[in-house]
Amino acid sequence: MNDEVIDVIVECTNIYINSIQAKFSRARDAQLTTSAEIKALFGLLYFSGALRSAHLNAKDLWNADGTGIPLFSATMGINRFFFLLRCLQFDNIHTRETRKQIDRLAPIRHVFESVVQNFQNNYTVSEYCTIDEKLEPFRGRCQFRQYIKSKPAKYGIKIFGLADARTFYVLNLEIYCGQQPDGPFHQSNAPSDVVKRLISPIIGTARHITFDNWFMNFPLARDLLTNHRLTCVGTVRTNKREIPLEFIQTKKREKCSSIFGFQHNLTLASYVPKPGKVVLVASTMHYDNTIDLESGDGKKPEIISFYNVTKGGIDVVDELCGIVYQESLVVGHSQYFLLC
């Protein structure tokens, strides 16, 4: 969050404070905020996470009996802290309803896109990237909140991300907000289209992308290589029509056996890790049937080993965000937007 983003938050928060000032008998209880104060507020939220304060009552951090944290009381009073959290806004409340008619993401659109743009302006990712989905824990009111049983948090906001597979730096994010109304923000949520939007910062850079079978399909792999100069590796679902039956059937195949298929600029590997199970991985980066002799059984295809090494970029980001979420103060709906 640079100064431009902070200034937007200050302006929008002050608009909201102005709208509720009449409800306070004392003017000092509803004073307008400043960029320095908002930065201090964010600093306290991050510091509370560093102190692992998830299970503490927020008021305990301001205790004056020696059990509190002096930094909190020295920064601002507890009443001011909760007042700012209540008033924190990321857009103009007076125009929000109009904007929401064409954009479900209107309350956070400008700030979110500004922060993502700052991600791209301040770092150059390595040659290996990962695309995947993550779930930001959130149980508040939101029309596009998701329930994903397989995720630790279960409920939250689904976000598609592009991250560095080595350093786990997030380069691009897209919030899934369902089917947008007709207008400038209406777009396809098909896996191929999501991938093409996420790769916009690295198009033509000859980097490599790893993703799972929800995103992977053969037309997309060829398109990334031919039109965007990007190679990819990804697992493939067995119901794809392009896959020969020999790659799917496992009855006559031995454990740890592999089959390879080759087309122009595309390789498909079929591996049987155990009886009755097959793993399919396609790649536009690998062009041979190399076996990884250093793998656990010494028979795993190099394509699969490479996939396993590079697939965890977003998963690690999700873990780190989960740690921050669990260790930070549970202080209301504003927390989710800060963690984004």
Give structural notes.
It contains 11 helices and 11 strands. The chain has helices spanning 3-20, 35-50, 70-75, 78-87, 96-100, 109-121, 191-198, 218-228, 302-310, 313-327, 334-339, and strands at 128-137, 146-147, 155-164, 170-175, 208-211, 231-235, 258-263, 266-274, 277-283, 291-292, 300-301. It has 340 residues and is of the alpha+beta class. Helix 2 packs across helix 10 (313-327). Strands 1, 2, 3, 4, 5, 6, 7, 8 and 9 form a 9-stranded mixed beta sheet that branches. Strands 10-11 form a two-stranded antiparallel ribbon. It is elongated and about 80 Å long. The model is unreliable at 325-340 (pLDDT under 50). A hairpin with a 7-residue loop joins strand 2 and strand 3 (155-164).
**Helical coverage, percent range:** 25-40%
**Order of H and E elements:** HHHHHHEEEEHEHEEEEEEHHH
Q: Calculate the mean pLDDT score and round it.
A: 90
Low-pLDDT residue spans: 325-340
Total beta strands: 11
> Strand count, sense and closure of the main sheet?
9 strands, mixed
DSSP strand content: 15-25%
* Count of helix runs: 11
Taken from the alpha-carbon principal axes, the silhouette is: elongated
Please compute the radius of gyration using only Cα atoms: 24 Å
Structural class: alpha+beta
> How far apart, in Å, are the first and last alpha carbons?
11 Å
